[in-house]
Design a protein that fits this description.
CATH superfamily of the largest domain: Jelly Rolls
Helix content: 25-40%
Largest sheet: 7 strands, mixed
Strand content: 15-25%
Number of domains: 4
Length: about 450
C-alpha cells in the first residue's frame, strides 16, 4: 500500500501485512512527523482538519446565485428591465452590492476564526509534546538522583592514598535470603519506525533468540512482548534485564559485519514475542557515510554496554581484582558532578570510568585507543561527567572532537538509526545503575 505523510506529503511504499490490526504509530523518514497508520486507512487523516488555507477567497458568489432573478431584499420575481423592485422599492444593484460585501466579511471572519482555532490546537499539541518530553527527562533524572549521591570530595585522593581495599560488598547478596528474587529492570525503546522493517519473526515463550558466544550480525527491533537478556558468568547463567517494545537486539559492531563479533549475552523470549527484521543494508550505508570520529564513538558505545553488563554480574572477587589493577597509576581527568566539556577520542594511554555513590566506589569500565571519554547531547549514557569520574594513565593523550559537527551528522541520520543510538545509550545507563546497586568498594582509611 502507498502511505502519504500528512505534513510534507511524501509517499512511501509499505507492506500492509506488516501493520498490526490496531494500527501502528510511524514516522515520516523525510520530515519526521509521527502519525497513525491503519490497514483500513492507508492515507491517514491529517492534523490539518478544518484548515482553510486552500479554500478559494470569498467573492459573494453564493448570495448572488441564491437571489438570481429575484429582488435581493423581498425575494419576489424581478420585473424585466427594471432597476428597482416594484414591491419594496429596493435598488437591485445597490442592495446586491451590500449583500455581497456582507457575505465576504462574514466568510473572512469565519476563516479567521477557523485559522485561529487551528493555530491554538497546534500550539496546544506542541506544548503537550514539550511537557511530555520534559516529564520523561525529569523522570529519568530523578531515577538517577534517587540511586546516586554525588560527593564534592576528591575521589582521586581516596584512591591514591589507599594501598589496598579492605572489603568488597555484593549488595545483591548482603542481608538477603536465598529465596529473595532480584528485581529485573525493563527497558522500553522509542517509537517504532515501521518503514524500516523488512520482515517479522515470531518467537514463543522460552525460545532462544540469541546465544551467548555465538557469531551473528542480525539486528532486530522488538515489536511486541518482552524478552530477557541473560549472561553466563562464573556463577552460572544470570538474568540481567528485560526489554520491551521499541528496543533493539544486536550491536553496531555486529550490524556492520566486524570480524570475530561474538554475542556477549543470550536473549530469550519471555512470553510470545514479535520481532521486526531491520533493513540492515540501509543502516550500514548510513554508518559508512559517517565520519571516522562518529564511527569510533558508536563502536565505543558498544563496548560500554559490554563493560557495564560484565560489571553488573561480576562476582565480588572479580570486581576487587579488576579494581585494584585499574586504579594503579591513574590521575583525575574528569570529576564526577562537573560540567560537560564535550567529547574526546583517546589517541594514547588508557582511561577508567569510576562512579562514587553513598556506599563507596564502582569501576564501570576501562578504555583505550579510539574509545571516547566525555559526553554529547545524543549520548545520554548516565556516566561522565554528571555521574562518574574519569581517571587516566600518565601517557594519556586524546583529541577533542567538534561537537557541532557530530550533532550535525546525528541530525541527518534516519529515525531508526537515532532510535538505535538512544536505546543503546539507555542500556549503558541501566546496566551502570545495576552495577552500582550490585557492588561497592569500602576504602581503607
Amino acid at each position: 500500500m502507498i502511505t502519504k505523510c500528512p505534513k510534507c506529503g511524501k509517499k512511501s511504499q509499505v507492506d500492509e501485512s506488516k501493520i498490526p490490526e490496531k494500527g501502528a504509530k510511524v514516522r515520516c523518514p523525510s520530515c519526521q512527523v509521527s502519525f497513525v497508520l491503519k490497514k483500513t486507512a492507508p492515507v491517514v487523516q491529517t492534523d490539518n482538519k478544518g484548515d482553510t488555507s486552500d479554500s478559494p477567497p470569498p467573492d459573494g458568489s453564493k448570495i448572488l446565485n441564491k437571489i438570481k432573478g429575484k429582488c435581493p431584499k423581498c425575494l419576489i420575481e424581478r420585473s424585466p428591465g427594471s432597476k428597482t423592485c416594484p414591491e419594496c422599492g429596493t435598488d437591485y444593484k445597490k442592495y446586491e452590492a451590500f449583500l455581497v460585501q456582507k457575505e465576504i466579511e462574514e466568510e473572512k471572519a469565519r476563516i479567521a476564526k477557523a485559522d485561529e482555532k487551528q493555530a491554538a490546537k497546534k500550539k496546544a499539541e506542541e506544548q503537550a509534546k514539550l511537557e511530555a518530553k520534559q516529564l520523561k527527562e525529569k523522570k529519568r533524572e530523578s531515577v538517577l538522583l534517587d540511586t546516586l549521591v554525588l560527593s564534592s570530595e576528591d575521589l582521586q585522593d581516596e584512591l591514591m592514598q589507599s594501598s589496598e581495599f579492605i572489603d568488597f560488598v555484593s549488595l545483591k547478596k548482603a542481608g538477603s535470603s536465598s529465596d529473595d528474587k532480584a528485581v529485573i529492570p525493563v527497558i522500553n525503546g522509542p517509537d517504532i519506525d515501521y518503514l524500516s522493517i523488512l520482515d517479522e519473526e515470531t518467537f514463543l515463550d522460552g525460545d532462544p533468540i540469541v546465544v551467548q558466544g555465538k557469531h551473528g550480525n542480525w539486528i532486530w527491533v522488538l515489536l511486541e512482548g518482552i524478552i530477557e537478556i541473560r549472561k553466563v558468568t562464573s556463577q552460572g547463567q544470570q538474568p540481567l534485564l528485560r526489554i520491551g517494545a521499541g528496543s533493539f537486539i544486536g550491536s553496531i559492531a555486529a550490524l556492520i559485519g566486524e570480524s570475530k563479533v561474538v554475542r556477549s549475552a543470550s536473549v530469550f523470549a519471555k512470553g510470545n514475542v514479535q520481532l521486526g527484521i531491520l533493513d540492515s543494508q540501509s543502516l550500514v550505508s548510513e554508518y559508512n557515510a559517517l565520519s571516522d570520529e562518529f564511527k569510533k564513538i558508536l563502536l565505543s558505545l558498544d563496548k560500554r554496554i559490554k563493560d557495564t553488563t560484565a560489571k553488573a554480574v561480576a562476582s565480588g572477587q572479580e570486581m576487587k581484582k579488576m579494581m585494584k589493577a585499574a586504579v594503579h597509576g591513574k590521575k583525575l581527568l574528569i570529576k564526577q558532578g562537573g560540567k560537560p566539556k564535550g567529547i574526546s577520542l583517546i589517541e594514547q594511554g588508557s582511561a577508567i570510568i569510576i562512579r562514587k555513590t553513598d556506599r563507596g566506589i564502582v569501576l564501570l569500565g576501562e578504555y583505550g585507543k579510539d574509545d571516547f571519554v566525555g559526553s554529547i547531547s545524543f549520548l545520554n549514557h548516565g556516566q561522565e561527567p554528571a555521574f562518574a569520574s574519569v581517571y587516566v594513565s600518565e601517557n594519556f593523550e586524546a583529541e577533542q572532537i567538534d561537537t557541532d559537527l557530530l550533532e550535525g551528522e546525528y541530525d541527518r541520520l534516519s529515525i531508526t538509526f537515532k532510535n538505535m543510538i538512544e536505546n543503546f545509550s539507555s542500556f549503558v545507563l541501566t546496566t551502570t545503575m545495576m552495577a552500582c546497586d550490585h557492588h561497592h568498594i569500602v576504602i581503607k582509611k
